[in-house]
Amino acid sequence: MNNLHDIAVGTELPPLRVPSISRTTLALYAGASGDHNPMHIDLDAARAAGMDDVFAHGMLSMAYLGRLLTGWVPQERIRSYSVRFAAITPVHGQPTCTGRVTAIEEADGERRARLDLRVMLEDGTVTLAGQALVALT
User: Fold this and answer.
1) CA-CA distance, 112 to 6, in Å (whole number)?
2) Each residue of 33-82: pLDDT tens digit?
């Protein structure tokens, strides 16, 4: 975002659409994160737990949402970032990350934007809901 002075309540962040979650994505994320929970990478383990298939790590979706934020403002402007995990992201699901400015406030000599964030699947299921506070000045 070039001109953060023009940001107002209602401003929408450009959506981040990521490729469908593949088994390769899950294996690579498991290796990178150190989270080798079999529910995310082993079909037999997932089925033994009553699932139809493996599913994405919640933190993978959180990382994509973080990428949405850092694509909008430099990382050093992020003052807070939190999420609530709402639903699983199935293998082959295609997440889209969105954000919307819900408030503009002044604190500690900075103009800040409060954001509502979401990760949503193509069927409308919200898998992650969050908030962030970013410095605009």
Assistant:
1) 12
2) 999 999 999 999 999 999 999 999 999 999 999 999 999 999 999 999 99
